[in-house]
From TrEMBL:
InterPro entries from the UniProt entry: GH2_GIPC, GIPC1-3_GH1, GIPC1/2/3, PDZ, PDZ_sf
Name recorded for this polypeptide: PDZ domain-containing protein
Domain (PDZ): residue spans on this chain: 129-209
Pfam family, one: GIPC1_GH2
Gene3D superfamilies with a match to the protein in the record: 2.30.42.10
Residues covered by region (Disordered): 1-44, 221-253
Family: Belongs to the GIPC family.
Biased composition (Basic residues): 1-11
Origin species: Amphiprion ocellaris (Clown anemonefish)
CDD domains cross-referenced by the UniProt entry: GH2_GIPC, PDZ_GIPC2
Length: 329
């Protein structure tokens, strides 16, 4: 995706299945130790008998016995392992959090899992339909996805249009917009669809909230705040999950990586209305050895071409990566 006159036409997306940008994305798996390398083409996962036997503990967020899972290489395989452990269908899982059963978007499972992290799976609960009057251009929603085709609400801005609709909550999966089923639609496309809804008219959302145990009911959360530290792992190493290629065991993120990913994630929200720490991590990884913005833009196009990032966003991301390298963030 080079800038200026060299810019290529954006690729058309043949289907809108979320690959979990990580891409991811969003994720879980077991692979060989060593630093990961971004490969836009992707690699097949290693045979199950060659994967390290990393065992993780898991529970259902609304309450359950503890299960043991292992042998997964991406978020979809992770969901399948959790579903198998508790005897239900994988599509019932909306998202997972690490080390807390609460709907805490700062603890959302992204592209890395600490080797000592405890995984809590949030499954489908109450379905609801709500009509919203769009009195302003911006609804005040930040959208992310679970890495398996479900877009959901990660943050609600104070004082926004949606903030006034108390039935809409952080963690709600957006199933339909004006009767159109959007399951399998990428989160940035969902954000665009909501942004393009006409002002001064009403629209309808069908939502699915995560199941909650009675004792877990509490006031609605606004979700993750951009200024918060999103570091989640407690182990000495992390499992880096990918939708393409094997997962890898890596060292904990460096200070440069943490600061750069945080800034890029903030830019994603500002420009596109999404938050996706694994997408941000992939962009930082792509850009860390590039010599100029055009080289960085072409690498983004090769790796994440479907996103069609605006030139201004690419320049700002390039600047953020440079600032992190120089210790200015």
């Amino acid at each position: 995706m080079p800038l200026g006159p060299w810019r290529k036409k954006n690729k058309s997306t043949k289907e809108h299945l979320v690959d979990n940008e990580e891409v991811s994305g969003g994720h879980a798996g077991a692979g060989s130790p060593g630093k990961s390398v971004v490969n836009g083409a992707g690699l097949p996962p290693p045979p199950a008998d060659l994967r390290p036997k990393l065992v993780f503990h898991t529970q259902l967020a609304h309450g359950s016995p503890t299960g043991r899972i292992e042998g997964f290489s991406n978020v979809k395989e992770l969901y399948a392992k959790i579903a198998e452990a508790f005897n239900f269908s994988p599509p019932e899982i909306l998202f997972c959090t690490l080390n807390t059963h609460k709907i805490d978007m700062d603890k959302l499972l992204g592209g890395q899992i600490g080797l000592e992290d405890f995984i809590f799976a949030h499954v489908k609960g109450l379905k609801k339909e709500v009509e919203v009057y769009k009195s302003e251009d911006a609804l005040g929603l930040t959208i992310t996805d679970n890495g398996a085709g479900y877009a959901f609400i990660k943050r609600i801005k104070d004082g926004s249009v949606v903030d006034g609709v108390k039935v809409i909550c952080v963690g709600d999966h957006i199933e339909c917009i004006n009767g159109r089923n959007i399951v399998g639609t990428r989160h940035y496309e969902v954000a665009r669809m909501l942004k393009e809804l006409p002002r001064d008219k009403s629209f309808t959302l069908k939502l699915v909230e995560p199941m909650k145990a009675f004792e877990m009911l509490e006031p609605r959360s606004k979700g993750a705040k951009p200024a918060n530290d999103n570091k989640m792992g407690t182990g000495r190493g992390t499992l880096r999950l990918r939708s393409k290629g094997p997962a890898t065991v890596e060292d904990e993120p460096t200070e440069f990586e943490e600061k750069a990913v945080k800034k890029v994630d903030d830019l994603l929200e500002s420009y596109m209305g999404i938050r996706d720490t694994e997408l941000a991590a992939t962009m930082v990884e792509v850009g860390r050895d590039k010599k100029n913005p055009d080289e960085f833009a072409m690498a983004l196009d090769e790796t994440l071409g479907d996103f069609a990032f605006p030139d201004e966003f690419v320049f700002d991301v390039w600047g953020a990566i440079g600032d992190a390298k120089q210790g200015r963030l």
